[in-house]
Amino acid sequence: MYGTDAPERDQPYSKESADFLMQYLNKEATLKTSGVDRYGRTLGVLYINNQDINLLSTKNGCSWHYKQYSKDILYAQAEAYAKKNKLGLWALQNPIPPWNWRQNK
Question: Where are the alpha helices (DSSP H) in the chain?
Fold first, then answer.
């Protein structure tokens, strides 16, 4: 999901993040691709009913805005909103971004 990074499977809030996305399974969707990552995975933004699900994930505190790869101001604002309102992973005492979690593993 371009512009976002969700918690790793062994990381706090990973199940809740996955559950957020599960509600969109089997829905008619559009994927606006933006390339591939270094592992060959397709990157893109998922739209359902014209809603940017990547952005919703960030705004609901289910993922971080991946600023290293995305400079999108809407994603930055969504993360700030979730953080300010302690939504999702931002309700945790010390949320660790997945890119830092992976480095420590």
Answer: 14-22, 53-59, 73-84, 98-103
One-letter amino acid of 74: L
Q: CA-to-CA distance for 34 and 18, rounded, in angstroms?
A: 22
Q: Give the mean model confidence (pLDDT) for residues 76-81.
A: 98
CATH architecture of 4-103: Beta Barrel (2.40)
Burial group, residue 21, by CB count within 10 angstroms (0-12, 13-18, 19+) = middle
What is the spatial distance between Cα 29 and Cα 24, in angstroms, rounded to a whole number?
9
pLDDT tens for 25-59 read 999 999 999 999 888 999 999 999 999 999 999 99
Residue by residue, what is the 3-state secondary structure of 83-94?
A: HHCCCHHHHCCC
Name the amino acid, one letter, at 47: Y
Long-range contacts of 27-33 (CB under 8 A, 24+ apart): 29/53
